[in-house]
Amino acid sequence: MSDDEMDIDDGPVDTRVSFSAGEAKGKRSAANLPVEVGDSLPWVEKYRPQSLDDVSGHEDILTTINKFIDQNKLPHLLFYGPPGTGKTSTILALARRIYNTKSEAALRHHVLELNASDDRGIDVVREQIKTFASTKQIFSSTKPEANASMAHFKLIILDEADAMTSTAQNALRRIMEKYTSNVRFCIIANYTHKLNAALLSRCTRFRFSPLPVAALRRRVEHVIESEKVRIDPPAVDALLNLSRGDMRRSLNVLQACFAGSTPLDKNGVALSGPDVQRDLITETAIYECVAAPHPEDIQAIMNTLLTEDMTTALLTVTRIKTLKGLALTDILQAVAEELCRLEVSPRVRIQWLAGLAEIEGRVAAGGNESIQTAGFAGVVKIGAEMIAKS
Ligand SMILES: Nc1ncnc2c1ncn2[C@@H]1O[C@H](COP(=O)(O)OP(=O)(O)OP(=O)(O)O)[C@@H](O)[C@H]1O
Ligand SMILES: [Mg+2]
C-alpha cells in the first residue's frame, strides 16, 4: 500500500488545528478553531457546545442520534434548518463523542470538514472527498473507551451543502454509495429544496427548528453567569424574543451590549479586569442594539392608527419613524404581531394581514418608503373603520 492510500497516525502534529483537508483554499471554516480559547474570541465560538450535553434544545434529535451511535448504526445524516440553531455544533460534538477525543488534532484523522460555500466545485467533491474517503483507518488513535466499532468509520461533514453546484451534488451521490463501508456523511444545509432529491434520499433527515425561548435562555444564562454580565431581567426576555430562535444572534447581541456597557478610559480604550464596574444592560439597550422598534413606539403607532384620523395618524407614524430611525419593514412586522393579538372579526384580520403582506412585498421590491408608509397607515385605518361600522 502506498503512502497516499492510508492515513498516517503518528506524524508530526500541526500546531494549527483544523478539521479540514481543504487548507489549500486558505479560508478557515467555522469549526477550524485554534484550540486555546482566548478572551478575544467571539462568544459564539467561545461557547460553542463541546459535547452533545451542551447543545440546548433539539432533545428528540439528540436522543435519536445517541441511539444510532449506541447501536452502531449511524446512517448518513442530513441536518437542515435556519441559521444559528446548532447544526454545525451538533455534528462537531457528535464527532467528539464517536471518537471520544477533545483533541482537534486527533479528530483531524477521522473527520473531514468541508465548507461547501467555499469549496463547492466538482473538483473538490471528486478530489478531496475521494482521497479522504478512500484512505483506510489502519490505526486507532482514539482512546480505548471510544465507541470501538463506530471509530472505524470516517466522518465527512459537508457544511452549507445547499451552496454546492448540482453537478457536485450529482458526483457526491455516487461517492456516498461507494464508500459507505468506511465513511459516513453528514450534509448540513439551510434549505433542503436546493439539494438534489437523490442525495436527500440517501440521508436520514433531521430538521433543526428555531430554538424555543427556554432553550435559548438556558445557554444565554450560562454565558451571562460565566461572563458576569450585568443585565436587567426584562432585557434578557427582550433579547430572547428578538432572537427568533437563533442562538448565534442571541449571543452576538449580548456580547455587543456587554461591550457597550463597559466603561472606557480617557484614551477611549475599554477597561478590563475583574474590578471594572459595568453599566446595567437595559431593555432599551437591547432594542437599540438590534435596531428593532421598542414596544412603546409600536404601541404609540398602534394607538394613533386605531383612534385618530388619517392625517394625524400618518404624521405621527412618520414622526416616530424619523425620530427613532426605524425601518418600515421592522414596523410592519411588529405591528402585524400586535394586530394579531387583538380580538377582531376574521374579515378585519384578513384585511390587515393581506394588506400588510402586500406592502411588505412592495418595500422588499424597492418601493418608495414614504408612499408605502402611507399605504401601511391606510391598511390599518381601513380595518379600524370596518370595526367602527360593525
Ligand atoms: N442548540 C444550541 N445549543 C447551544 N449553543 C448553540 C446552539 N445553537 C447555536 N448555538 C451557538 O450558536 C453558534 C452557532 O451555531 P452553529 O454554527 O451550530 O449554527 P448552525 O445551525 O450551523 O448555523 P448556520 O446554518 O448559520 O451554519 C454556536 O457557536 C453556539 O455558540
Ligand atoms: Mg453551520
Secondary-structure class: alpha/beta
**Into how many domains do the coordinates divide?**
3
Q: What's the mean pLDDT score?
A: 83
| Terminus-to-terminus distance | 85 Å
Judging from the principal axes of the Cα atoms, what is the shape?
A: globular
Number of helices: 16
| Oligomeric assembly | single chain
CATH architecture of the largest domain: 3-Layer(aba) Sandwich
Strand content is: 5-15%
Helical proportion, percent range: 40-55%
SSE arrangement, N to C: HHEHHEHEHEHEHHHHHHHHH
GO molecular function: ATP binding; ATP hydrolysis activity; DNA binding; DNA clamp loader activity
Protein name: AAA+ ATPase domain-containing protein
Biased composition (Acidic residues): 1-12
InterPro entries: AAA+_ATPase, ATPase_AAA_core, DNA_pol3_clamp-load_cplx_C, DNA_Rep/Repair_Clamp_Loader, P-loop_NTPase, Rep_factorC_C, RFC_lid
